[in-house]
Amino acid sequence: MTLAPWRSPLSRALHRNRSLTYARYLQLATVRADGRPANRTVVFRGFWADSNQLKFITDARSDKFDQIQQQPWAEICWYFPKTREQFRLLGRLILISAAQQPPELLQARMQSWQDLSDTARQQFLWPDPKQPKAEAEVFSASNADPAQPPDHFCLLLLNPVEVDHLELRGNPQDRHLYKQLDHPDDQQWSVQFVNP
Amino acid sequence: MTLAPWRSPLSRALHRNRSLTYARYLQLATVRADGRPANRTVVFRGFWADSNQLKFITDARSDKFDQIQQQPWAEICWYFPKTREQFRLLGRLILISAAQQPPELLQARMQSWQDLSDTARQQFLWPDPKQPKAEAEVFSASNADPAQPPDHFCLLLLNPVEVDHLELRGNPQDRHLYKQLDHPDDQQWSVQFVNP
User: Fold this and answer.
1) With b meaning 16 or more CB within 10 Å and e meaning fewer, what string describes B116-152?
2) Count of CB contacts below 8 A, A vs B?
3) Which of A42, A133, A169 to mutate to test the interface with B (most CBs of B within 10 A)?
4) Contact call for B75 and A193, based on CB within 8 A
5) pLDDT tens per residue across span A66-79
């Protein structure tokens, strides 16, 4: 698999903004069952193996889990404050849960669990999201096992087909549109330099 | 009109993050005509008059203009880096274009145009977005008139009906859900303290 042409500017942005922890936070838009959009911050967890798919994690008890099962299309919006540039990546999401999957994806899910901090793992043992707030003790009732994720821990992959890169520095601004061509096996992309 | 109960924590977040220019940037998710989501960064321009409606601006030549006309529901996701908190606001968008509107909205549109910097106004005279990049001279061919916005300059109002406020500081984190009750004339809201 060759790197998509947007990988190089994205790597550069990640590198130049590396002093900001939150430069790895981005906003993931999905669509609710009733057709209204949803939008929340998620943490970028790197690329899956040698693919162009971005890794995130999620909890099967969250609203987005159900949304993604109904409508796998998503757009992430990723703003880098230091270099003043934005990447929008439109693509399909793939949920990797505890259920049967190709072994390499199950392995990736396990690895993502093991890569988490203790604090992040612990959050998956918290009581159900959006229910009336439980007593403080409930949140520390048991310890997460680094060797075994709970069933509701999911790896989430985004497979982009369009990328819109806007650089706000400069007047006029620079904008590049990347589109995956019709034959996804080829992993070919078009690139256009366009008006911002 | 009384202030909605989420206005106070949002004001506090804006104040505590005021040293970061980009704390006024947030991500706006809408839905495309084909049902796939779209997501981009926009700049918060304050509240409209004494309402609970957030102001943004947009260009009628942008994709979101068409999206909003077909599906006015949107969710903004607003992450405040310094205080590590997120606001998600779900609501309907209202486009205020040059076409006939109640005079107070046309006046608000004019005021938003006048409040812009020269640089920001100039961008509305740039050639059509997403077309092949024009020569540099085209971007500075004429000067924007501070007294008269071009027809494609739009004010955009978001009227939230649900607000999800997550504070990442603290373990466990604090999360409050605000929902507008069924009688919008009353402007009554429910507030729930829930599991993160």
Assistant:
1) beeeebbbbbbbeeeeebeeeeebeeeebeeeebeeb
2) 143
3) A133
4) no
5) 999 999 999 999 99
